[in-house]
User: Fold this.
Amino acid sequence: AANGFLSLGSLVFVITSLFLFIGKNLFISGWTADQANITPLRWVSATVVPVIVVSWGHGRKSLSTSGALLALIVGFCLTLAHYSFFLCLLAFFITSSKATKYKQEMKAQVEEDFKEGGQRNWLQVLCNGGMAFELSLLYLLDIGSSDLPVDFRHQYRASWLGMAVLGAISCCNGDTWASELGSVLAKGDPFLITTFQKVPRGTNGGVTPVGLLSSVFGGLVIGFAYFVGIMMSAASMDREIAPNQLLVILVGGLGGLLGSLLDSLIGASLQFSGKDAKTGKIVEVAREGVIPISGKMVLDNHSVNLVSSILTALLLPKIALAVGL
Assistant:
């Protein structure tokens, strides 16, 4: 039933996309940005490629049906705006899913809300991809459908929005790598980022050197995906006058680390963590029989992910400008 509903949703999505393209050309004649008409090939690729990727993810149980339908819309907008945006999203989806499934039997022993397979629903897709989705819409409205390299000197607004998208996605991937890999690869217990005291594994705001290093690599993967998109789609004339685009990979790594640190700081202070006295597992709800460890019940895990991605998206363009882009 779920597969049938996704197939129906994908069909509606493709038909709606077709009529939107026809209507755009009939009544609007291009986007709001000057000289930024979207080619039929670009529109078709932005429609078909997300359908293929989302169907694959749904078949592997990495996405729920609701998550898959929302991911179609997110993938469409990111692909339409810039191919690098889509490649970043694709790299995040594939690598974070692999990281979530790595040694999941160990994670099930310490996390009460652990879900086997790490299937993402619509809320998780929204909180992880919502900021990138909004920024891609702003890119379309302001710049148009244009694959520009990162060049703050000649293309400031396009570069700012591009690095903000990189920040949002590298934050999510870096934090996922840190929490999913650091929790099982680290030999010792993590320490709370606000007090530096040892805490049980699975505690919100708990960090390890292995986890922080994993967040850097997670961000580097997203930065590399952005770089590949530039090399594939940006015009050679634009690349020649732009700074060295290899710096984008470095910025992605910094975004992964920054996002993980922000997520840990917010999680340690505004997200409750406690240990269930009976099961010994880490829980996020204060109740009878739970020993408090850290944080207040202000935000849940989804909210923390969203806030940290927003902050990283706002800060990373400044970092990109500082390193010479």
Notes: The first helix runs from residue 2 to 28. The first strand starts at residue 191 and ends at 192. The radius of gyration is 20 Å. Confidence is low (pLDDT under 50) at residues 30-36.
